[in-house]
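quick one before i forget lol
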Amino acid sequence: MHLPSPAHSSVAALCAVLACSAAVPSPGEGGFRDGDVNDERPGTNCFACHTQFRVAGTARDPRVARVEIDDDDGNHAVMYPNAHRNFFRHHLLTPPFRVRVVNLDGSVRQMESAPHGSCNACHHDLPGGAGSL
């Protein structure tokens, strides 16, 4: 699998919790919307189509270089946004998650206690969403 360098990535939102429940959203919940499937529908709940993912989201801020997650069992994962501005992880991680967004300039935004890995289920711009980051 090819991952683009952070400098060439357009990027986005992440997996924290504000106004989000601990239950993993079902397909079609949490910001699912129609769109161009060839563009991977940035901002949509990734789990609506990609049930194999364990953590996934869309990075919209072009300054984001990577997303780092520490799970409840002490595992550490690093994800880089791809050409569609999405990041994802197939390997099982145990919530709650501690999430860090690392920008190209080295600055870090940290979020605590994300209850599940469906980042866009909470972080979307539709009514009721926590907004993109």
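fyi The chain has a mean pLDDT of 74.
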